[in-house]
Amino acid sequence: RIFTRMGARDDISTGKSTFLTEMSEVALILNKATPKSLVLLDEVGRGTSTFDGISIAWAISEYIYNEVKSKTVFATHFTELTELADMYPGIKNLTIEVRETPDGVIFLHKVVEGVADRSYGIEVAAIAGLPQSIVERAKEILNIIVEKSDIEKKVGVLKEGQMKKIKSTKKTVPEGQLRMF
């Protein structure tokens, strides 16, 4: 069976937020998927705070790897999750190839092995037609945030000690099972 969790929507009629709807759908997938399943997850954890979202997405990834053992594609902008490839054999990081030109960014829609070196959110906002004044202001704010050099606090980059703690609590699994990413 193929399971997907993509998109964002509220269920106003039952009072469910986008995040509750997302978590309910992920729970269903985790309870029904098997090692023979294909699981496709897109931006799981985005409907809550950054730290909660990263933590939930990380824990879901580990659960799928260790318990469900299905082939899985997990699309995310949480760069912290790229650390999973260093912790679990068989997990791969993939990204979409991008070409930067003097005129802007060209998204090549080609999947390649590796990690995105940066986000192109501001460029996508410009392509989508946001007013130029907003795009320029966003660039200014981004530069200020990056220059402050306390970017780690703002985006939640894991410190080495935190990574060691997470790695020390990971479960081990036998080689040869279906892998994620």
Automatic annotation (TrEMBL):
Keyword list, A-Z: ATP-binding, DNA-binding, Nucleotide-binding
GO molecular function: ATP binding; ATP-dependent DNA damage sensor activity; mismatched DNA binding
InterPro entries the record matches: DNA_mismatch_repair_MutS_C, MutS, P-loop_NTPase
Gene Ontology CC, one term: cytosol
Protein name: DNA mismatch repair protein MutS
Domain of life: Bacteria
Gene Ontology biological process terms from the UniProt entry: mismatch repair
Residue ranges annotated for the DNA mismatch repair proteins mutS family domain, each copy included: 37-53
Pfam families: MutS_V
